[in-house]
Amino acid sequence: MLVTSVLSTFLSVPAGHAQQSSEPLPAVRSMVVAPAATTLERQFYGRVVAKETVDLAFDVGGRLDRLLPEEGQRVAAGATLAVLELDGFRRSVERAALNLDMARRDAERALRLSERAVGPESRAEDAITARDLAEIALRDAEAALADATLTAPFDALVAARLAPPQSIVPAGQAIMRLHDMSELRVEIDLPERLFVTYGGLDDLRFMARRPGGGDLPLRLVAFQPDTSRVGQSYRVTLAFVETPSATVLPGASVTVLAQVPATGTGAVVPATAVLAQNDQSTAVMMLDSEGPALTVREVPVTITSETGTSFVVEGLETGAEIVAVGAHRLTAGQAVRRFTDLRMTDD
């Protein structure tokens, strides 16, 4: 009789209830609400540029006799870069010097004759003018001789040799391209939206990150107050505060991290943690462990977003535990368990 009673009791239990009790609780990935962030970080593509990139040319024309440094070579300020054939310029200096000596003698003779009233005074004045012109011609010839040697105006890196040796080059033709390496800079395109949001660049802090290297601080140098036609962005120029390694050269790419002040006072949560209600309100699912089981309850919050990938929520206390992923599949009061990891089990 006892066996029959127990069997009848087991059979009287609803099948759905027996199946429900055997199903595991849904696992949820949770997160603990951290204190409100004071800064937000944005990443930009940056390109290393020299302080200045200039094309050097001779002020005089002639045959290019020597082109000294090779491309990629570093040169000091004042170092000789290129030299024209100098024989013709030296002859011009000698000719101008001889003409000046002759003009000086003529001027002295004309002055003596004028003082003795033997020669006209106008002839003496013409001789003095000819002497002065000869002095100017000598200075011009000496300047042309000096201009036939091209020197580095600053400590530089040779970017390109633009003319072959032994070629005839006119005055003003570019001979060599140099990078001014006294200060390396980074150029980025800053979106107009970010610029307007923070009212300028004074509150932004920039860092440069190179693959395999640490972060290097950057300082603001200038920005171009004219947006590009395609991306509506401003060209911003930054400079390395500390001298980077020798492997950082003009044209290299870097990742620029911009730290911007957070405008909200709430906590940052991923977009997957936010529930959008039909009345356009928002909420999150908070884990409640006060009872015998772990349950979830719905907590209304207000949200703002500055990055588009995460939300700043108001209405949560620091240290509260909320559902980070899959909150839309849960209902208030539902029992859950924390997701720990993925385990492979043998059948």
TrEMBL record:
InterPro entries: RND_pump_MFP. Transmembrane segments: none annotated. Belongs to the membrane fusion protein (MFP) (TC 8.A.1) family. This is Efflux RND transporter periplasmic adaptor subunit. It comes from Phaeobacter gallaeciensis.
